Amino acid sequence: MPFNNLCNRQQHEPGRKHFALLIDPDNLDEASCLNLLSLSETHQVDFFFVGGSLITTDNQAAIIKLIKENSSIPVILFPSNSLHIDKQADGILLLSLISGRNPDFLIGQHVLSAPILRASHLQVYPTGYMLVETGRQTTASYMSGTTPIPYDKPAIAACTAMAGELLGLRYIYLDGGSGAMQPISADMIKAVRQSVDVPVIVGGGINTAAKAKAALEAGADVIVVGNHIEKNPGFLAEVSHTVSSYNLALDVHR
């Protein structure tokens, strides 16, 4: 399913949930990537997000090429800066870090990226990116030099998301960061969901089926899992089953 259908009310069924697998190119070799691709096809992953807050190898292009050659699942870049644009992908989350006050990640990297993106075939998804405090400092908060939204302040998150939507951003991404000690609270997800009409993406700290279900029930349109699946590939099937069961129940009640 094309990612932009989430914003298209004519093509996207309201209430339907989706599962994105976040792939960090630094953490995969060819064999482990092929294994994840096979599992993802079997268990109906909707999207691959490829990238990370700190890319220390030149593995990204090879990983994207491997995905495109072995899977039909859309590949969407999840970049930390303008250096991580790869035209092999299908699209890019153009992340504006609206939870912070660092101008480089609000607009600076976007200025550098604009001519490259305009000349590419990549589908651009303007996204309000919001880091949330989840128990410890993450790579994303450290590298961006920003303070995450406090875990217990859903009103701040809701107003931030609302501002992002009013500025024209078409997606809101709540992220607890890789290796988060706890997932973003249901109260915060619910508050953001109620404050905006655009799709809400939630990631970070989702390492059990119960946590995945809680995020879906609170209002996440897309849940993102990465770090835990890298360590435990079998968890992919659990998340997929959770999303599928939610959508099946949705269909039954219609």
TrEMBL record:
GO CC list? cytoplasm
UniProt GO BP:
glycerophospholipid biosynthetic process
Using the UniProt record, name the top-level EC class of this enzyme in a single word. Answer: transferase
Its Enzyme Commission number? 2.5.1.41
One GO molecular function term of this record is:
heptaprenylglyceryl phosphate synthase activity
A Pfam cross-reference name:
PcrB
Q: Which InterPro entries match?
A: GGGP/HepGP_synthase_I, GGGP/HepGP_synthase_sf, GGGP_HepGP_synthase, GGGP_synth
Q: Where does Mg(2+) bind?
A: 24, 53
Which residues are involved in binding sn-glycerol 1-phosphate? 173-179, 204-205, 226-227
Reaction equation(s) it catalyzes: sn-glycerol 1-phosphate + (2E,6E,10E)-geranylgeranyl diphosphate = sn-3-O-(geranylgeranyl)glycerol 1-phosphate + diphosphate
Q: Keyword Cytoplasm on this protein?
A: no
- Which UniProt keywords are listed? Lipid biosynthesis, Lipid metabolism, Magnesium, Metal-binding, Phospholipid biosynthesis, Phospholipid metabolism, Transferase
Keyword Metal-binding applies: yes
What family is it from? Belongs to the GGGP/HepGP synthase family. Group II subfamily.
The protein, known as: Geranylgeranylglyceryl phosphate synthase
Q: Which organism is it from?
A: Pontibacter ramchanderi
